[in-house]
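Hi R.,

Here are the chain sequences for the assembly we discussed:
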Amino acid sequence: MSENVIETQDLTVYYGKHRGILNVNLTIEKGEVFGFLGPNGAGKTTTQRVLLDVFPPTTGKATVFGLDCQKDGVEIRRHIGYLPGELALYSNMKASEFFKMYEYLRGENGTKDYWQELANRLDLDTSRKISQFSRGNKQKVGVVAAFMSKADLLILDEPTGGLDPLVQQTVLEIVREVKADGRTIFFSSHILSEVQAVCDRVGIIRDGQLVATQRVEDIFAQRMNRMTLIFEVIPPAGIFNMDGVTELERADKSITLEVRENLPGVLSTAAQHKVMDIETHNISLEEIFLTYYSKDNGGSHV
Amino acid sequence: MFRLLVQELKFRRNTVIGWGLGLCFFPLMYIGIYPSVADEMAAFADLEIYAAMGMSLGTFADWVGSIMIVLLPLIAAIYSISNGTGTLAGEEEDGRLEMLVTLPLPRWQIVTAKALALAISSTIIYLIVSGVSWIVFLAIESQIETVMAGKDLFTAVMAGWPFVFAMGMIAMFLAAFCSSRRFASMISTAILVVSYFGSNLAASTKVLEPFEPFFLNTYLDGTGKAILEGQAAGDVLVLMGVGLASFILALVFFQIRKLTVGAWPWQRGKVEA
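And here is the predicted structure of the full complex:
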């Protein structure tokens, strides 16, 4: 039986009269990498901050490791590595001093080998002062600090922000290693490709509401094909009226279909007419994401 | 908490050195210069304008009281206001506090460590200034007429510390209470300024006399008598009491503060109907 590391029930946060998040119900299982997708201001950071007891929810409840986030915040945070989205560091320290301080304040020992290894992999010079670092290097400091404790749960708010593509890949590689280690990652991002690359499940948050939660593999298993059939003579209307198929566009000699299922039926129907060419393409996670955010369809499911 | 306290003290190391050395200007300048202005100052002994500023310059003890007890704590309080508001509201605004509160530390420990670091750092600053005052006194002792000894001066200067402590804790409370560091600094500074002028005016104006107990400077006696005999125990207790009460309020309001939001306590989230 799966064990929920994070569980929220109708989690709602209001900043005065402004909505932060609204009735967010979320479960994240042990050992999974959960991607939290949404544009800026959607409520990703707010959700993560409630879990860390930076502030309490207006209503609703959140538990981490079965413990109440507000009552047992200290015990919960002992097992969390956190990378904030708005990273602020003590700039007059060297990176190595910062990691020592971080270890010291967490009451831990013996993390040096690991943070040194992480710093090497991210090509971070720990002997330099943080004030001399570029934004990307500061982000690397945050990434190392979040991972160095080998915490059971990692809450990462846009971890690859400001990093160059090579380093982004290294961070994603480290995420995969953490997953392989059986630890859990709650990963917020608006970069779809990285979510697609490392996450088991994704939650899509829009205007403070969790509009969908799905396994990444399920999204791709049920992902639709967009197919354009080019005929010598356009067939009569309605021939593709079948379950799981929607006619999107009809031109002089071509019909564009959205095929969710019943591909054999589409092909056999098309074969009864003289097909000149077939163009297909899979809809990417990005397109699915955009569908959720489409104002026109109110973010309806794909 | 001890670990955080150590870290907070490390953060303040340079500031303490800077403020400690900077405030040494007071004893070096004002005590050092006394032998050459002693006769002129005696002539100003009874000027009302000085009395209105809480000063009396007739004797060396009066002079020391006016400078080291009336003025020095006002300047040192700027350190405690800046540090008290900066360490909570300032770090919240620049994002560093988020790193701290997401560590496995209870909030009361964070406030306590920061308050202790502020108290200890202001004590060190005062020890530096008091020590330098003693040294300067030894250098001029033979040129002045006074019944004071070097250690009396040291103790007299240190007696200004409870005021600085109280102002620091008020600033911390306001930092935990107000929506931003700007408001906390503004209100703390207003309290400092109003307290200084208010206590002096209340002491010299019959109409304002009933308000005298409400001004913090009332509990800081800058007269020569207090320099020679020490501050009244009751006054010290009031200042320490105000400091401790403010610290407790800081604990309470930091505990319920919606960090990173920058809201006043009454601006808690409400679900719209």
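The longest helix of chain B spans residues 60-94. Chain B has one domain: 2-255.

Let me know if anything looks off.

Best,
T.
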